[in-house]
Design goal:
Layout: H1 7-18, E1 22-23, E2 45-52, E3 65-73, E4 80-84, E5 90-93, E6 104-107, H2 109-114, H3 118-133, E7 139-144, H4 145-154, E8 158-162, E9 166-167, E10 174-175, E11 178-182, H5 184-191, H6 201-219, H7 222-225, H8 228-241, E12 242-245, H9 251-257, E13 266-270, E14 273-278, E15 281-286, H10 288-298, H11 302-308, E16 313-314
Parallel strand pairs: 1-12, 2-7, 4-13
Antiparallel strand pairs: 2-3, 3-4, 5-6, 7-12, 8-11, 9-10, 13-16, 14-15
Helix pairs in contact: 1-8, 1-9, 4-5, 4-8, 5-6, 10-11
Length: about 325
């Protein structure tokens, strides 16, 4: 979306967006990269992306992190890796004084819930991920699914490709093999399925990565970005769907620095894990390759790890 825009126009659009987005300190102090007072954006960068399943129609149902991604941007700021963290990953969740959580072992998506969602939940989740990977983050964002659905509809839907027939456990909708134009509701419904898929949660992670790329591709469509009314609606929609922590970096500086990112350079990565029953509960447990993945993230050597482990790379 930003590749064809001049710096002045881009700053103007970003300033409008910045006034709509909610900003909070989403990262725990233990998980925050010490770049808050740096004057310019430089790579490599690591961001925590959380998809919240909070329901406006049923707030009493709680709030969980249905999607957890680490977005790694290379040193040259021209390529991004989307690392999906399995929601059922067995981890140690550290004690957290700010939210009153005493600490324990559970599925990683429980950390967001134990932190009571929102700012507290993201702080506890980020602390858990740092404890697991040793990685510190340059920023974080929470995506509200209801707002995300509206953004997809504003751009006219997205094109998603289905490999095997899937029946939604949420709506009963059947997704047939082939590439289809999907509305926001359909795309999110499809991307949340895992029980009727050959690869289970691995397929769900891949579909979520594909959805993110499909939305970025659609937002980059010239018919969208040259329509001032549509652009304004999208900016407002994105702002309403996000809670953002840029680690002290002005939003316009961050957007300008990342204007060279290309969707064809997005790479989907899965954390090496395997399913395991412990007691009567099903978890996913890290494999030996996961240690190497986390090390490559810390050392900004993810490109080499991806080339050596094609099994864990998703085609987007």
């Amino acid at each position: 979306m930003i590749a064809g825009l001049g710096a002045v126009a881009l700053r103007t659009l970003t300033a409008r967006y910045d006034g709509n987005v909610l900003k909070e300190r989403l990262l725990d102090s233990t998980a925050r990269q010490d770049t808050e007072h740096h004057s310019e954006v430089s790579g490599p960068l690591n961001y925590l992306l959380i998809g919240s399943d909070k329901r406006a129609t049923n707030p009493g149902a709680g709030e969980r992190s249905d999607t957890i991604m680490i977005v790694h941007i290379t040193e040259d700021l021209d390529r991004a890796y989307l690392i999906s963290v399995p929601r059922d990953l067995l981890v140690r969740i550290p004690a957290h004084r700010e939210t009153g959580f005493a600490g324990g072992t559970d599925k990683i998506n429980a950390a967001f819930q134990f932190g009571h969602g929102g700012q507290g939940g993201s702080q506890l989740l980020s602390a858990t991920l740092t404890d697991l990977t040793g990685l510190r983050f340059d920023g974080a964002a929470i995506i509200d699914f209801s707002g995300f659905r509206k953004v997809i509809d504003l751009v006219g839907g997205v094109r998603m490709c289905v490999k095997t027939q899937v029946r939604s456990i949420h709506t009963g909708r059947i997704f047939t093999p082939g590439c289809h134009q999907m509305s926001g509701g359909q795309a999110l419904d499809f991307a949340r399925q895992r029980y009727d898929l050959p690869g289970g949660d691995f397929d769900r992670q891949r579909h979520q990565q594909q959805l993110l790329r499909a939305l970025i591709d659609k937002m980059a469509d010239r018919n969208v970005i040259t329509n001032p009314v549509k652009t304004d609606q999208i900016i407002r929609g994105v702002g309403a769907a996000l809670t953002l922590d840029t680690n002290g970096v002005p939003t316009e500086d961050l957007v300008l620095a990342l204007r060279g990112l290309r969707t064809e350079e997005l790479v989907g990565v899965q954390v090496p894990t395997h399913p395991e029953m412990i007691g009567e509960t099903s978890y996913t447990v890290p494999d030996g390759d996961a240690t190497g993945l986390f090390r490559s993230l810390r050392k900004a050597e993810l490109h080499d790890w991806v080339r050596a482990h094609p099994r864990w790379v998703n085609e987007l």
